Every structure is written in C-alpha cells, then in structure tokens.
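Reopening this ticket.

The earlier resolution said the output was attached, but the attachment link was broken on my side. Pasting everything inline this time so it's all in one place.
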Amino acid sequence: MDVILSFGALLKQARRFAGMTQAALAEQAGFSTNYISQLERGLHAPPAATVELLARALALDAVQAATLAAAARDGLRAPASTQDIRAVPLASGSSPSLPHMPDLIGRAAFLANLKQRLTEQHDLALYGLPGVGKSTLALALAHDPAVRAWFPDGVLWARLGQTPALEMQLIGWGMQLGMVPESLTRWNDITALCRMLHAFIAGQRLLLIIDDAWKIADALAFRVGGDQCVHILTTRFAPIAFQFARAGAIPVAELDNASSLELLQHLAPRAVALEPHVAASLAQATGGLPLALALMGNYLQSQSLCSQPRRMHMALERLRDATARLQLSEPLAISDLLAGQAPDTERSLQAAIALSDHALSEKLRAILRDLAIFPSKPASFSETTAQAVCALPADEIGPALDALTDAALIESVTADRYQIHQTIVDYARLAGPNRLAQERLVRYFSTCVGKPHVTRDMFDREWELLREALILAGHLEMHQELIALVSALAPVMINRGLYDAADAALRQARAVDCATKDRVHILHYTGLLALKRGKPGTALTLLSEALALTQTDASLRICRSAILATLGMVYHKSGDYAQAEQAAQEGIALAREFGDDASLGALLHLSGVLCQKRGLYAVARAAWQESVTIAMQSEDSELLVALLGNLGMVARKEGDSVQAERYYQEALALARQIGYRERLSTILRQLGVIAFERGATDEAREFYEEALREARAIGFEEGIQHALISLGAFAAQQEDFQQAQAYMIEGLAIARALGQRDAICIFLTNLGMMAIDMGDYALAERYLSEGIAIAHALQSQERISGMLEALGEAALARGALAEAEAHAAEALALAQKINHHEKIAQAFFLLGRVFARQGDGERAKGALQESLTRLQAMNNMRIASAAACELGEVYMAEGEWEQARRLFEMALADSTLLHYRGYDERARQNLAECERHTSM
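Inline output:
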C-alpha cells in the first residue's frame, strides 16, 4: 500500500512537536517567517542545504532528518512505501489533541500499578462509575514522563462518547502521525481506514488511548496499534472493558475519605480552612467521586475570591443539598469536547449520570428509582430485598440488576449483594420521594422479623436497611409495622451497643398508640436501654410500669419472666442481691411454666452470677450450663457470649487459668463475629487480666486499652469503669501512681454516679492499696474503711475477703503485725469458704510475710510455699515470683543458702514479672549474697 507523504506536513508537524512557532523556527534556521510558511503550505521545494538547516534547528535525530530529506527529494507530494518511510515521530511532544492534565490526588499506588502493567505490554481497560476518574488516570499516564519515554513514538488520544465521529477521529490520528489528508480521506470505508493506520503504525511504539467508549465496536475500531503498541480504554461498562482487554480490565474505585478531603482542600483551601468539619462532611457526601469533588472545589474556590466569609458560608450551606451538588456545572474546554459537541457545552455530575440513565429502558429507569430508596454504599442489599422493593417477579429481578450493573449504575459486591453509590442515589431521588417503594421496604422487613434467632441473623446482614425501614415506618406513619420492627430489633440493637439508634426507635414507638402487650415490650426495652446507659433509677421505674401492665391481663403473664430478668439485672448492678435473687427465682418459675426458653436462659444466667457472688461456684456453673444448652438450641449468640465469659471467670477464680483463657478466647471470637460490643469490652478486659498474671504486660495493656475504646465508643458506662479498674491496677503495678490514680478516680466517679456499689468497692480497694504503696496510710485507711462497709452491706464474701486483705497490707506496712495477722487470717477463712483460689493464694502470701516479720520462720515458709504453689498452678507468675523472693529471704535468714538461691533464680527467671514493690532489686541482691556463700 502507498501512503502519500508531504514535506510541508512533516515540517509543520515536527515544528509543532518541537514547541516552536514559525517565527522561532525561521530565526533559528536563518530564514524569514514567510518562507517557512510557504514551505509548510507546499509552495516551494527546498534544496538539500535548506532541509539540513531546518533539521538542525528542529533538533531532529538522524532517522527523522532522513525522513524529512526523502520527502523533499521526492517532491511536494511524492509517494513513499510505508515499509521504508516513517513520519516524524510523536516522541518530542504529546498529541496536539491530548487534553490538559487535571488534578490527581489519592491515586499514587493505583497509578504505579497501571504503569507497571503498561511496561509489560498489556492493554488496559479502566471501567467504573461516571465521574470516578477513569479519563483522568488515562491522562496521567499519557502525561507521565516515564510512560512517554517507554513509548518514544508518541501518544494518540481519542474521546468517543455515545455517538462518536469514528471516521473523523481516525483521520485525525492519521494526520497526527504525519499522513497527508488526501491519503486518508480517499477511503470511505472505516475498515479500510483502520487497516491503513495499522499498516502505517507497524513497528512503532505508540500509546493509544481510547476514552469513554460506549460500544465495543467503536472501541475496537481504534485498536490499530501494532505489536509494540499498548492501548488504554476507558468505559463505564464492565462488559466492554472485559471484551477489550480481558485480564487487563481494571475497575476504578472511588477515593477514600482522606483523599477526598485532600483533593477538596487542594482545590478550595480557603473553604476547608474556614469550615473544616463542614468541608469534611461534604467531601464524604460525594462518595469519593473525583468529578463531584472537582466541581465542588472549583465552585467553592470561585466563591472565596472576594474574601467574604459570609459568601463562603452560604456556598458551603448550599452544597449540603444533594440537588445543588448534582447541578454544579462548568464549561468544557475545547479540547475536552466530544466530536459534534457545541462549544457552550457544560459538564455536571447530573449530566454525566443522565447519559447512562437515559440509555436505559423506561422499566429499568423505574427500577433504579426504586432501588434508590436503599442507603448508599457501603450499605448493600440482596436480590430478595430488591425484588420485594421493586415488586418484580423472581425471574425478572436478576436480569434487571445485571443490566444496571453493566450500566455502572449499581455495583455487584458478592454473590447475592449489590451496592448503589451516593451520587446515583441523589440523582435517582431528584424525581421526589418514592412512597410506594418505601412502603414495600417497611412491609417486607416488618414481616421478616419474628423469632429472635431469625431477627439476629437478618440484623447481621441487613442492619443498614433495617435502620432505614425503622426511620421510614415513623415518617410514613406505618404504626403497626413500626411496633413490629421495634419490638423485634430493640434488644438486638441494645446488645450490639447501638444505643442511639435503639433510643430513637423506642422514642418513635412510645409516641404511638398500640396494644397493651406491645406497650409492655416497649417499656421493657426502654428500661433495658436505661440500665445499659447507667440509669438504674429510670430503668427501675420503666420496668415496674411494665410489670404493672402485665397484671391487668392474665394473657400478659407470659411477658413477666423477660421483664423480671432485666429487673434482676438492675438490682444486681445496684448491689441489692436479695431483690435480684427474688426477681430471678420468680422469673425462672414463670419461664418454666410458659416454656419461655429465651427468658429462662437469661434468668439462669443471672441466677448463676448471683451464686458466683456468694462463692457458690458449683451452683453457678450448673445454672450456666443449663443456660448454655438453651442458648445453643435457640441460637442466642449474645447469651452464649455472656455465659462463656462467666464460665471463664469462675475457672480463673478456681485456679484454672488455662481453661479460663479458652473460654475467653471462644467468647471473644463469637463477640467479634456478631458485633456484640458491650460484651466484647468485658472479655477483652478479662483476657488482659490473664495476660497480666502470666507476665505478658504489653499484651495486657493492649487488651485493657481496647476494652476501654470499645466501651467508650458505645457509651457503655459499666464497661468504661471496669476497663478503668484494670488500667489503674496495671499502672499501679508499673509504679505509675499518678496515672493509676487518674484512672481509678475517674472510674470511682462513674461508679458512684451509677450507684454500683460492687464497682465502688473495687475502686476503693485499689485506691487503698495504692495509698499503701505510696506510704499514705491515713488515706489508705479512709478508702478501705468505706470499702469494707460497702462490702458488708453487699454481703459479698469475695469483696469482704479482698478488703480484709487490703487492710492487712496496710497494717503490715505500718508495722501493726498482730492486726495484719488477724485481717489476713479472716480474709483466708472467707476465701476458703467460697473456694476463691486467687484470694486464698493472696491471703497466704500476706500471712507468710507477716509470720516472717514476726520471726516465725516455719509458719512463714509454710504460708509462702502454699501461696507459691497455688499461684504457679493458676499461672499467676507475677505474684508467684514475688512469693518466691519472700520465701527465699526466709530460707536465707535461716542460713539455707542453696534453697534460697534456687528460689531467687526462680523469681528472676523473668525479671519483668518482679517490677513492683522493688522485688526485682531485692531478688538480685539476695541472689548475689547466696552465690557468695555457696561458693565459699
């Protein structure tokens, strides 16, 4: 095939790629501007010397100069073989039609991956939502110096759109390559034109970018590069991307929140500085679409030019409205126009989405508007839910969702779930509220929720949609459906720590006239929420009202057992164990009478907790084991988590720390799986205790801190105070008494506000022990005196034992040995009565030190050895090391140096375990003394 080349066309192309005007080239080569113009128009045939001067002025290489000389020798319009002659390459500059490079933020890693694929000679096809930045990424590659170096023959760019002028753009590519118009326009067949371009490009290394393809045939018409070329396609449609590039089809995701805000700040720094929180929420509202951010940023920047804060505030306020964001527009540059577009064409997010929307059938457009009632991504919806909302037959919903996915208007995320982007939701809602679809959503979910385990399973999959249904039920005054949804979902929301959402739903339900049975449920769950939020007085009032209503109708007696379970928890948290036990036993009897297994499981759990408080571990375990069976049969994962945690606690108290950790880890995995954040906080704290006791201090701190974060995140006051107890005790063991006091005082204030006497007792014990370590015995006495009074009022033998031990420590510290011995002996007796292995070991540890100070070596060795043996069996290596050190000192005082040396070596096996109360230094000094004596 012959291709007609023109010297004038080659000269003009080379000059443009060199970035020179005719005047600049004339001056550089020593000619007049008019002469250069005449050469480019083909009015003169230049001699060889002139061509040489022009080639030198244009800095052409040898091949380029030879090409230009050949064109001059063969005449103004001489034919030349495509196998022998090449046009001036495009490497010295980008294609004249290449659009400008827009701002690119948050894409560094993605862009690096694309560049790597290009160097491996892979065709690419970028696909995704309108406005997601596909064209921008392609432009970034086209402008990248490294990419252009990899493609030394240049870059060709074509923007297609829905109705591309294929022939015009292909001719444009030919002219950019240096082919003369006559050789291109003589073909009236697209296929022949494509073959001609392909033959001409053969052997060159070009990057060919095909932007915004709507049809695969249009995209393939521009696939004219040879083996050394790479093509990049951008399209909204995944099927087109796959057909074009197969493994090179790459989805383009939206920007994350941080990158979105960074881009907005780059475009409109004054607006972001003026209202950073508003700007952050607006950036998030765009769903990470770069086009939306660019339009928003450019608009805000234009409003900031007058330096009037009032105007900026008004602009930011306007953009809170989704319609205003969609309709933001700006004129397109000439280089950004599609073939056939008028110069006054504007771009907006609404227009970009409308192109895809208008390409749909009327039926699909209606389905898209139905789906737009769903919350936007990251929420998702199932085919079943979509079918219900769209009122479609089962055999139609799948193809409809497929069509919308292919049109990039919804996204498929898993085998049966889909997402819809925020901007698509905003666009589809421009037509106004879709009441029929909203009603269908509410009715669908109100009929689905029912049995607790079904509700929990659905909650885990559909929480975002269920929350939307709750809101819509209130707005649409669908009262019957609202009550059904709240009655089923409120306990699950509360257990998941979604207190604000539960509160909003319960408030809506309480404002509705409903049947007495429904009102009982609403009062019950509102009381449960009050308890979780640390308002036991409010909880008691609401639960008492609910119980009173159950007495008005014999058919409501079945509701009493569940209310009594919650009421018993209120009494338990307030330290009124007698009332709690009474509520539990009445509730258990009712639950067994009515076969109410859900309430029975909760009541047995409560009964076990109360037995555990009295040291009746075997009775507690029996109640919990029955409750475990019920929880597993009813698939009550929340109850099972609580039971595993309590079984772990008893195992630890009985000295089996290995089994305790197994229970805790099982409970932790299940709590994370179901999102049970309230119990998650508790279990993390318990695991921290286990880690601390075996000397894993860093691990313990991480558990405690995560427990506090989880509790604070959901406003779980009880969890906050318990995490503060653990963190305070940890800081005290590390001798950071200032931090320890801060934790304990904050926690004590919470416990006092909640009226939780058991927690108050624990805080007072810890504060008293810290005061002892700091040598402030008067302060210790005040804390401990108040604490033991509360412990006696609670009739909690465990708390009394702990307080007696603390009082014994205080007496020992100030040298009152007889008092210390009496307190330690009483603490030991109580601990043995309730079989609390940890308290028994600690009481023996205290007694052994008292006996040692009294000079009674035999009793000191007996008590300390008993403490050491028990602590080792419990894997409480921290205090075990301290006991070994104390026992070694007793042997050393008696001159038994070898036995003492072995004990000190045991104590120092992990020196980090001894880092409190100076035991580490004592053990090292004593070991050195023993070694001197044994070596003599």
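Reporter confirms the inline version is readable. The CA atoms of residues 684 and 703 lie 5 Å apart. The radius of gyration is 40 Å.
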